[in-house]
Amino acid sequence: MLPANQRKKINTRLGREVIKQSRERISKQRTIDSGQFSPRANGRKKKLLRKMMTGKKVKVWAGPNGAKVGWQNSLTGKIARAQQDGYTESFNAGKVARQESKNEDPDANATKAQAKKLVELGYTRSVGTYKTGAKKGKARKKRVSQRWIMDNLNTGYAGILIRTIGNEDLKASWNVVVPARPFFGLSKSEIKNMGKQIIEDVMNDVKAR
User: Fold this and answer.
1) C or N terminus of the chain, fewer CB within 10 Å?
2) What's the confidence (pLDDT) of residue 20?
3) Neighbours of 21 (CB within 10 A)
4) What's the mean pLDDT in 154-175?
5) Helix count (H) and strand count (E) of the chain?
6) Average pLDDT, stretch 34-39?
7) Are 53 and 19 within 8 A, CB to CB?
8) pTM surpassing 0.70?
9) What spans are recorded as compositionally biased (Basic and acidic residues) (predicted)?
10) Rounded to 5, what percent of the chain is helix, strand, coil?
11) Residue range 146-162, pLDDT digits in tens
């Protein structure tokens, strides 16, 4: 068996490779198995997880018997785990209303959960009036996207709309599903190839002394 200090050095380097490879996957928007990240539900093309591993957010804790790689901030770590594994959160109008009451800024943009619910309820906005035909002079209505709602409505007004359009049905529920995007870690082939190379490098360093 290798001495403890050499084993620690090997584990430290493996941990750093986890960080390096995970950052590269985020940059390329690829999973551990080289698949493409599941796209955003709202269709936006902005890169996913781009701030998840910036700077010194992620750290390696290594010893002679193994290494742990994780986030120094526990909340960021929980968010990363949710993105890695995917999750489903259940909402209802009552839960959304409670979240609104805790919101420090009542003028903040409507949340994704609120936008999803309003689209499901068939929310429309006025886009002028009909100029010709049997409906001439009557108001024209247009269905809107989740993105439009989040950009143009605040949380307070969105909450009122949900309760009004939903006819005060606080038991109505829906799910927000975030698909798994396994970006973190090393694949089996990476562990095998990198582990072998790191061990060889450490042993060569020892021989060179």
Assistant:
1) C
2) 94
3) 17
4) 70
5) 7, 6
6) 91
7) yes
8) no
9) 22-31
10) 45, 20, 35
11) 999 998 888 777 877 88
Round to whole Å and give the CA distance between 198 and 55.
Answer: 24
Instruction: Find out whether 42 and 145 touch, Cβ atoms under 8 Å.
Output: yes
Q: How many CB atoms lie within 10 A of CB 3?
A: 10
pLDDT at 104: 46
Tokens of 193: 């190839």
Q: How far is 90 from 208, CA to CA, in rounded Å?
A: 59
User: Alpha-carbon distance 149 to 152, whole Å?
Assistant: 5
Q: Which residues contact 40 (CB under 8 A, 6 or more apart)?
A: 46, 48
**Token pair 């985020």: residue:** 26
Tokens standing for residue 88? 């489903």
C-beta of residue 141 within 8 angstroms of C-beta of residue 127: yes
Q: Is the dihedral of CA 75, 81, 86, 87 positive or negative?
A: negative
What DSSP string runs through 92-139?
EHHHHHHHHHH-S-TTSBPPHHHHHHHHHTT-EEEEEEB-SSTTBTSE
> How many Cβ atoms from other residues are within 10 Å of residue 131's Cβ?
9
How many whole angstroms separate alpha carbon 209 and alpha carbon 198? 17
Tokens of 133: 């035909």
Q: Looking up tokens 């959304």, which residue turns up?
A: 96
How far is Cα of residue 5 from the mean position of the Cα atoms in its chain?
A: 38
